[in-house]
Design brief:
- The chain is of the alpha/beta class and 339 residues long.
- The chain has one domain: Luciferase-like domain (TIM Barrel, Alpha-Beta Barrel), CATH 3.20.20.
- It is built from eleven helices and 14 strands.
- Strand 2, helix 2 and strand 3 form a beta-alpha-beta unit.
- Helix 2 runs parallel beside helix 3, helix 3 packs across helix 5 and helix 6 runs parallel beside helix 7.
- The longest helix is centred in the middle third of the chain and has 19 residues.
- It is globular, with a radius of gyration of 20 Å.
- This is Luciferase-like domain-containing protein.
- Pfam families: Bac_luciferase.
- GO terms for molecular function: oxidoreductase activity, acting on paired donors, with incorporation or reduction of molecular oxygen.
Amino acid sequence: MKNIAFLSFGHWSDTPHSQTRSASDVLHQSIDLAVAAEEIGVDGAYYRVHHFARQLASPFPLLAAVGAKTSRIEIGTGVIDMRYENPLYMAEDAGAADLISSGRLQLGISRGSPEQVIDGYSYFGYRPTEGEDHAAMARRHTEVLLGVLEGEGFAQPNPRPMFPNPPGLLRVEPYSQGLRQRIWWGAGSRDTAEWAADKGMNLMSSTLLTEDTGVPFHQLQAEQIERFRKRWADVGHDFEPRVSVSRSIFPIVNATDRAYFGTAGGGSDQVGMIDGGIARFGKTYAGEPDQLVKDLAEDGAIAAADTLLLTIPNQLGVDYCAHVLDSLIRYVAPELGWR
């Protein structure tokens, strides 16, 4: 059995071929797709977060709206860039979204991806301290967030408050019990996966890895997952971690699928440069269901993960994205033992 979720990048563009012409379109369609996915039997709705781009950015209003419109499906991010975040304000927003959804929030966070602007986090008021780089700043923000989500009081109360306080130091509110164990770190390397295990975060293996050892992407990713689980066991956390991988998978079951993705499958991994370093990207899976079953059965990282995030072409609209999800749940997942 596997948890199967969709991951939306939330693009919009005012072009004739896009069904998301505006930010309003993307936000409303994101909610509608989550509702449709829950009806189909999909397990999760996840959203990317990018700043200064025509993509989804502020996740918590969207997550709260999805949580209010659904009853079963997990809601999450993949991922929030912690360079941009005030950890205490984020803890309040996350607590509210988790309570609205009755504990269904799965919060993916990370150092973030290459940006649209130079040092975009500085416009949000955040800069690395002396001796830090931007990655270390993201980890510092993350450690503060994790500490706050433990729920222990830390703030000295006013002796003459406007409203009565409980005894002792105060924590940020609203607080949602259990959210701390539903934080995921988006790891782009084997080393950062081990850091996530040290900190007691679930692993959200990235859509790319910022290293290349010459082996196929899925093998490198499977090694990353193995190292994460080993480190987790060595540290001895008191709960079992979850692991997700992201894939582009398109079952071709009709003429429309063939027109969109008939030539997309059968390729290989890509190797490129990200932020001046080498990176390996996974391939797209597209084909008839029988062929997909064979190809996906050989993907070692999918086999090692408990959660599969399906990247969806959100600009093709809710109906088509729901069709892609339904085709995978109906024709592919049962044959692989995922359902």
